[in-house]
Amino acid sequence: MRIPPGLADEWRHEPAWLESLPELAAECAAQWSLELEIPFDTPRALVVPAGDVVLKLNAPSHFEADHEADALELWAGRGAVELLARDDGRRAFLCERCVPGTRLADSDADGVMVVSELLPRLSTALAEPFPFRSLAGEAERWAEDVAARYAHAGAPFERALVDVALDVFRTADSSARWLVNQDLHGENVLRAEREPWLVIDPKPLVGEREIDGVGLLRNATSRASVRRWLDALAELSLDRERLRGWGVAHALAWGWDARQGWSNWSVDVARRILAA
Fold it and tell me: What pLDDT shows up at residue 271?
């Protein structure tokens, strides 16, 4: 099996996993009677279509994806792709294949309208116990990491962004029990047949509902687009200012690369959200 170049580059620090991928995929194919096709060219995970299903294998250190299958199982196909089988030992699962699979971001559809119809169906209040990481716990880690990285890099951008982020992290609501998705945006919503649009690739946490907006704000290309998302999400009873704060904070939390340092794109995203 050919490993997509982007995937090989993304996980080159995990050569053993990359080397094992063809065998892992073959084992899954035998286990679930699949005829594997050419993998999709995606860098974060090995994603292989097989007829009307898709096989996905996540890297061992990709901890944000630890509970992807749990979120899909909980949603049970309501607004998201249906989970069909899972093998947690191999960090693998099967889900339905979206056909034609056009990304919302690449379509002529109004993304705000599509997501505004999907999101209420995905919003789920949970009772303990649950397998997901908590937003409050992640916020503690992010607060330490963002402050340390900013100092280590020699204050490479305005301190005001960091101050906003740290304030948001410190005030994370530890009592909030919503299943939320850190990576909901137009590239992770696909055109499908069972429903017009389905969410893929969730990165779940349990916490404040406003986290559902961070990916949407992150991928907005202008201040006007950010404002439109803020307005639309506020119509769904999310707090507008908390959305903006989490948008800035999460952009910085995910804005660091161990090899390249701060992402200029992520910092610009934080600026744009704060100014909107």
Answer: 98
